[in-house]
Design a protein that fits this description.
The structure holds 2 protein chains of 2 kinds. By secondary structure, chain A is of the alpha+beta class. Chain A has 3 domains: about 180 residues, Glutaredoxin, CATH 3.40.30; about 80 residues, Beta-grasp domain (Ubiquitin-like (UB roll), Roll); about 70 residues, DNA polymerase, domain 1 (Orthogonal Bundle), CATH 1.10.150.120. In chain A, about 30% of the residues lie in helices and about 15% in strands. By secondary structure, chain B is of the alpha+beta class. Among the domains of chain B are: about 50 residues, Uridine Diphospho-n-acetylenolpyruvylglucosamine Reductase, domain 2, CATH 3.30.43; about 120 residues, Enolase-like, domain 1 (2-Layer Sandwich), CATH 3.30.390. In chain B, about 25% of the residues lie in helices and about 20% in strands. In chain B, α9 packs antiparallel against α10 and α10 runs antiparallel to α11. Chain B is globular and about 55 Å long. The N and C termini of chain B lie far apart (about 50 Å). The chains are: A alpha+beta, B alpha+beta. At the A-B interface, β8, α10 and α11 of A face α2 and α6 of B. Chain B: Keywords: FAD, Flavoprotein. Chain B: It comes from Hymenobacter setariae.
């Protein structure tokens, strides 16, 4: 079943499935539907997709008769939820557009670690576009069926979905020719900034709200989920990364301020299939139980061993140097043993 | 988090000009304290001017002392050889504070500018004159075990949290700034202010005034920092003290003492300093000095424990600084600065 639905292609009729409001996809037929799958633990510092969508639909659709109805078409769904599994997009950020007949018109999946490029979205829009439309056509939009079997309503929905997708924080800056009006800064939001981050030797370009912590950019925008969010206030060390070779807390680092630094995350520590000596020693000494703090512990420990002031420390000096990394499972004796082993390596 | 605009400073002068003309703008450098306060909603600037990239990171020998650039990290300063050797109180205060990660990020100018750890300051549902002037003080009638013994007012009983500031006060460091009205030098003990009726102002810095360096003046004596906290590591001081002693043969020529965790600023114990000058160091003398240091303490409902704790801590710091008692760890490390916990577990080199 999973394989079958994961092969859903534009033009396929989407099987029935439950929506969070208790209705089903089949019951919603007669109107286009946009299904947006995303992590539910969206950081409040980043605007939620549906909020972006609502804003864009207001701006894009000013004067469009059914702009008010547009938000009804939008369903924000947990990417680990039942429908995500049912439609074969579990664990992926995805946008699906279903037309009035329940036929999949458009599907875009954000693969882990990847960004959507504006070109992909525009190409999808071009493919969907039944014929050139101009603003008066949009203003007169109705359920009228255009050539190609797509209604204006569906097309406008698709355009709005694409616009929303382009506005997602993980997405590369929209090209100017998309002609989407860039909303003026208002009192309740920060202007998005282009941010270039050098992570594990690779450069990433993002559009970010300046409030975005490096931790959230890593996890939510770049899907580098090895770095963990524990307390989010600099007290637990689960989010430890290396900035220019020194351990640092990604939760207390604004992403925009990490530009120009060499950022190393737990994903970048091993050399290919060869584990870093600290990683190997953690496995050998069983230096974890639940494992949630482990990436942070390993990033602190590997920085400690690279630092001339701490690399030869005794057990008690290691404890002191590791005091910024908490372990609720209290695997501390094994963590110390692992670090001492890596010290000898 | 309240929305804000972000700008990278092009120069010190440009950063000062931008912040000075916008009352809601703030500087940001290491961000360890600032980002947390942004997340808590305690700080709500409309514009952050990032000064971390300004070329203010050098630590250099300067007029027989050391000039520490504002952007030097806490780690860089703590391990700078001339600081660790000649101003161990500074390294001890730094290394006994925060965690490695935070010390790697936090800057030397930012550390003394961190805001109080009074829990009511960070709780938006509680009144706090420091956060919202005129709203009242929840700590005075609340749970005030971490609050001030000295210099408090009817508006605020908060304490200053920085360990480093205590050491810099005892050493009479100098703060170099550039601001909307030009450059100036501020004696470190004058940088922070008492709460009075305006507890929202922590320091005498004007809006838009930027610290460019912290200068340690030439000093040939001994210095030491000692701290009591609720955990062995990575915790703020309940009480702390920094001692700087200059000897004349077997007698104390000059003693300077700053107390931490007991006031809105590092609290210089001037009665104790006066009592020590010209005297031969003995435990009895140090006990008299500690009694003098805390004679004017005004405890609140839950913090009277800090008086005997602070007195004992000061006696011990004086004994260790003068050499009458050994340090509990190598000078210039967290182990020398700690009481209990890991203190005494790392051998002091002979």
């Amino acid at each position: 079943m999973h394989n079958l639905v994961s092969a859903l292609q534009p033009g396929d009729t989407v099987p029935n499935g439950p929506l969070p409001d208790g209705s089903t996809l089949f019951e919603r037929r007669g109107r286009p539907i946009i299904l947006a799958f995303a992590p539910t633990e969206w950081d409040p510092a980043q605007a939620h997709q549906s909020a972006i969508f609502a804003r864009l639909s207001q701006e894009f659709g000013s004067g469009v008769a059914f702009a008010e109805a547009a938000p009804e078409a939008w369903h924000s769904l947990d990417y680990r939820g039942e429908l995500a599994i049912h439609l074969g997009v579990a664990g992926q950020r995805a946008l699906l557009l279903l037309d009035e007949e329940g036929v999949l018109r458009w599907k875009t999946v954000v693969e882990p670690g990847q960004d959507i490029r504006p070109g992909q979205v525009l190409a999808a829009l071009q493919a969907l576009r039944p014929e050139p439309l101009d603003a008066p056509d949009l203003a007169a939009a109705s359920t009228e069926v255009l050539t190609g079997g797509m209604s204006r309503r569906t097309f406008v929905m698709a355009t709005l979905a694409a616009a929303a997708l382009l506005a997602l924080p993980s997405v590369v800056a929209a090209a100017p020719e998309t002609a989407l009006p860039s909303p003026p800064p208002t009192d309740n939001r920060s202007a998005m900034l282009p941010v270039e981050l050098n992570i594990n030797g690779k450069s990433h370009r993002l559009q970010l709200d300046p409030r975005t912590a490096l931790l959230d950019a890593l996890r939510e925008n770049l899907h580098l989920t090895g770095t963990k969010k524990g307390c989010d206030h600099g007290q637990c060390g689960a989010c430890t990364v290396h900035l220019d070779g020194h351990s640092a807390l990604s939760c207390l680092t604004l992403a925009v301020m990490a530009q120009g630094k060499a950022i190393t995350t737990i994903e970048g520590l091993a050399k290919g299939d060869t584990l870093h000596p600290v990683q190997a020693a953690f496995i050998k000494h069983d230096a974890f139980q639940c494992g949630y703090c482990t990436p942070g512990q390993i990033m602190s420990a590997s920085a400690l061993l690279a630092d001339q002031h701490t690399r030869h420390g005794s057990a008690v000096e290691i404890r002191e140097a590791m005091s910024g990394n908490l372990c609720r499972c209290a695997a501390y004796p094994n963590i110390i043993a692992a670090i001492q082993e890596a010290q000898r390596a | 988090m309240h929305p804000f605009q972000y700008q990278r400073a092009e120069s010190g002068d440009q950063a000062v000009a931008v912040v000075a003309k916008n009352p809601d703008a703030a500087f940001i450098a290491g961000g360890t304290s600032q980002v947390d306060l942004l997340k808590e909603g305690v700080h709500q600037p409309s514009l952050l001017v990032d000064v971390a990239g300004l070329p203010l990171r050098q630590i250099t020998d300067f007029e027989g002392g050391v000039r520490i650039g504002a952007n030097a990290t806490n780690t860089e300063a703590a391990y700078y050889p001339a600081i660790q050797a000649r101003y161990p109180a500074v390294s001890e205060a730094l290394l006994a504070g925060a965690s490695v990660q935070i010390r790697n990020m936090a800057t030397m100018a930012g550390n003394p500018l961190q805001r109080t750890r009074c829990p009511y300051f960070r709780d938006l549902d509680q009144p706090c004159n420091k956060r919202t002037p005129g709203s009242g003080c929840a700590a005075i009638g609340g749970y005030n075990h971490v609050h001030a013994l000295f210099g408090a007012s009817a508006a605020c009983v908060a304490t200053h949290p920085s360990d480093l500031a205590v050491a810099l006060s005892a050493l009479d460091a100098r703060v170099q700034t550039t601001g909307p009205r030009g450059s100036r030098t501020i004696a470190f003990p004058d940088l922070h202010r008492l709460p009075g009726t305006t507890p929202h102002l922590d320091t005498v810095l004007e809006h838009g005034e930027l610290i460019t360096s912290i200068d340690l003046p030439a000093f040939a004596g001994r210095s030491h920092y000692l701290k009591v906290r609720e955990r062995a590591s990575y915790a703020y001081a309940l009480a702390s003290c920094a001692v700087a002693l200059e000897m004349d043969g077997a007698k104390i020529k000059r003693a300077r003492i700053a107390l931490g965790g007991v006031a809105h600023k590092p609290w210089r114990a001037t009665p104790a300093e006066a009592l020590l000058a010209g005297q031969q160091p003995t435990e009895k003398l140090f006990q008299a000095a500690a009694a003098a240091a805390f004679a004017d303490a005004k405890p609140l409902e839950h913090n009277a424990y800090k008086i005997p704790m602070g007195r004992n801590l000061l006696v011990r710091a004086l004994l260790e600084t003068s050499g009458l008692q050994p340090l509990q760890g190598p000078a210039g490390t967290a182990f020398a600065a700690s009481v209990g916990g890991m203190a005494g577990q790392v051998a002091t080199p002979n």
